[in-house]
Structures are given as C-alpha cells and as structure tokens.
Design goal:
Layout lengths: L9 E4 L2 E4 H14 L10 E7 L2 E6 L11 E4 L17 H7 L4 E5 L12 H20 L4 E6 L1 H12 L5 E7 L9 H6 L7 H7 L2 E2 L1 H11 L1 H4 L1 H10 L7 H11 L5 E2 H13 L2 H4 L3 E2 L2 E2 L9 E6 L7 H4 L2 H4 L5 E6 L5 H4 L7 H10 L3
Parallel strand pairs: 5-6, 5-7, 7-8, 8-13, 13-14
Antiparallel strand pairs: 1-2, 3-4, 4-6, 9-10, 11-12
Length: about 350
C-alpha cells in the first residue's frame, strides 16, 4: 500500500504508473460494481422445487458419457452459486466439460414463515426427494453426492441414514463433522456464552448479517479493512482480474438467513453437544451413525481453513466404515481451495480423476 501521496501525485507499483486519484476511481468502480457482478450463469433448468428450495440440472449437449451423475448439496448460509461463480471459475462448468451430468440443490432463502423448518425436514422432506427426482431424470439408481461446508454435513448425515440408498460416492468439501474443537466458532457457540434459545425465539430466521459478521470476526482485519487494502494494492497489477474480484466479493457479502429451528439444532446438537461425531444424533426419528457409510469417500480440506479447521474435518476418516477412502488436504482456506486461482489446476482435476475411477 502506498504512503501519503497528494491527489495529483503519481505512484508506481509493478510496471503500472497510476495517479492516486485514478486508482481511487478504479477502486470505487470495482466496489460499486461488485453487487451486480454476473454470477451463476452456466445454463440450467429447475427440475424440482419445494418451498424455497430448487434443484437445478445444468444443461449439456447430448447425453452424458459418464454413468454416475454428480449431485451438489450446498451450504445453508451461503448462496449456491459459489460452485458456479463465473466462466473459468466454475466447478459446475468444469464437471460438465468432463462429461458429468450435474445437479445442484439450492436451499433458497427462508422467510419468517419457515421458522419451524428443521434439519430433519431438510434431510427427509427435501434432500431425499431431490435426489430421487435426479435419479428419475437420469435413469441412474446411484449418484455421487458432493456436499460443501454445512451442505457436506447434511450429505454425510443423508448417506448414514440411507446406507443402501442412492449414494454411490460421497465427496465432502471443507465439511465439519467433529465439533469437539471447532475453533473460534466453537468457542463463541458454547452454551455458557451463546443464548441460542433466546435468539431463535426472537428471530424466526437468524439474520444473514448476524452470521456474516461472525464469519468476518474470526479474522477481523483481513476480513474487513484488509479486503480493501489488498484491492488497492492489486489494482496496480495489469494482470489483476477485477471481474473475478467482484464476483467473489458479491458472494462473500451475499449471505442467507437461517431458519430458527434448523439453526437451533445446528448450534445445540452439533456445536455444543457434538452429537454427530459421538453417534448420538437423532434426525427424523433415526440415529445418525456414520459407521453405516460404506461407499467410497473423498474428504477435501483446507490447511488454513479457519471456518472449518482441520480439527473438525479429519475425524470423518475414522468414523466411516468405507474401505475406499481418501483425504485431500490443500493449501488454502474454506473457499479459496474450491474456487481460487489454483482450484482449476489443483482440486478440480484431482476430483475428476477420483470420480473417473469410481464411475
């Protein structure tokens, strides 16, 4: 970042010569344009819907040469387009190019009328029916279930509840399973510190900005002021992808509220009591036993993930019964390893290679 320089003076960074005033204009344009950045534009159609949730089937030319479709289960508190961010930075686009039939479950945006929507309903009334619809459309009795973050936790619960069901392969991206040491979010969520019962009595949906603030406070300076300091510096690089920055900025600041009943379950049963890892979690009247998962498992984690640190992601490897299981730990954080600059050469080809051997 440059030192104090008058508005008319020039600053030279890299090979680019810019006045401070012109760079200020470029920065304002980048920030103001972020909320309208084009995202999630891979062609698709809605093939199933329930309440606010939608299942998308992404358009491809001709039949899929792959036998096993990929069904993406997205997080509950983030917009689903993160895995279809923009052309060239879209896992969906990459999977289509590699010949896969791709579906995505987007949970949508809950309203106040959804305050009683529980994780039980999301698994049995939404995810189970959505997967069934995808099976009907493809004629495939099995598929790869790929869950990201909290979507991965639900995907693991689903695979455990239906061990003889349609899940042929299970892929987890930065997915919390063991909450005994859940980092800063775990400390903030302790029963003695966090009034989740009162919060969910007052709010029928936990406001999006409440959870967004919590995520940013994990690393307060890098997650707030640091974003704009880095943007200022990078605007001096002629190779800087402003459109890419805008797309990611839109997603980061485009959080989703959390239905009160589901949020209360998430905090109390997962963070506070760690029932999933302990094998005592009950959903829809059934105990969720991860040892019932026998299908091939790929567990992907970030070495510098502060939202779902390694202490939360590694335990699944010992808790499932799968003989075919692999863990891939990549350098980076919760989002960067999935859609960052290196994702196209690091994660995505390795994911496809893993899927090809289990098609």
């Amino acid at each position: 970042m440059c030192s104090a320089i008058g508005p008319g003076q020039r600053t030279r960074i890299g090979s680019t010569d810019l006045t401070v005033s012109s760079r200020t204009v470029e920065m304002l344009r980048a920030v103001r344009g972020a909320p309208d950045a084009p995202v999630g534009i891979t062609p698709k159609e809605v093939v199933w819907r329930k309440n606010k949730a939608r299942v998308y089937r992404y358009t491809r030319e001709g039949p899929s040469p792959r036998r096993t479709p990929v069904f993406l289960v997205m997080p509950l508190i983030n917009r689903a387009y993160i895995l279809d961010l923009r052309p060239g930075a879209s896992l969906v686009e990459f999977l289509l190019q590699q010949g896969f039939d791709v579906f995505m479950l987007d949970w949508g945006i809950p309203g106040d009328e959804d305050r009683d929507l529980s994780l039980d309903s999301m698994l049995t009334g939404y995810l189970a029916r959505a997967v069934r619809r995808a099976s009907e459309l493809t004629g495939s009795v099995s598929m790869t279930l790929l869950g990201y973050s909290t979507g991965g936790t639900l995907a693991a619960c689903f695979a455990a509840l239906y061990p003889d069901g349609p899940v042929k392969n299970l892929v987890l991206f930065t997915t919390p399973i063991d909450f005994s040491d859940a980092g800063q979010l775990g400390r903030w969520s302790q029963a003695t510190a966090f009034p989740v019962q009162k919060l969910t009595e007052v709010f029928p949906t936990v406001p999006a900005h409440f959870m967004d603030l919590g995520m940013k406070l994990i690393s307060p300076l890098p997650g707030t002021v640091g974003v704009y300091v880095r943007l200022w510096d990078r605007l001096g690089d002629p190779n800087f992808d402003v459109a890419g920055w805008q797309a990611m900025s839109r997603w980061v600041n485009d959080a989703v509220p959390f239905a009160a009943a589901a949020y209360r379950q998430w905090i109390t049963e997962f963070y506070q009591h760690n029932k999933l890892a302990k094998g005592t979690l009950v959903l829809a009247g059934q105990r969720v036993r991860l040892e019932r998962i026998r299908c091939p498992l790929l567990n992907v984690a970030g070495s510098a993930d502060t939202i779902t640190p390694r202490s939360t992601t590694r335990a699944v490897m010992q808790l499932v019964s799968s003989e075919d299981k692999e863990e891939l730990v990549l350098k980076g954080g919760h989002v960067g390893i999935l859609v960052g600059r290196a994702a196209r050469t690091e994660l995505w080809p390795r994911l496809v290679e893993w899927l090809e051997h289990r098609d």
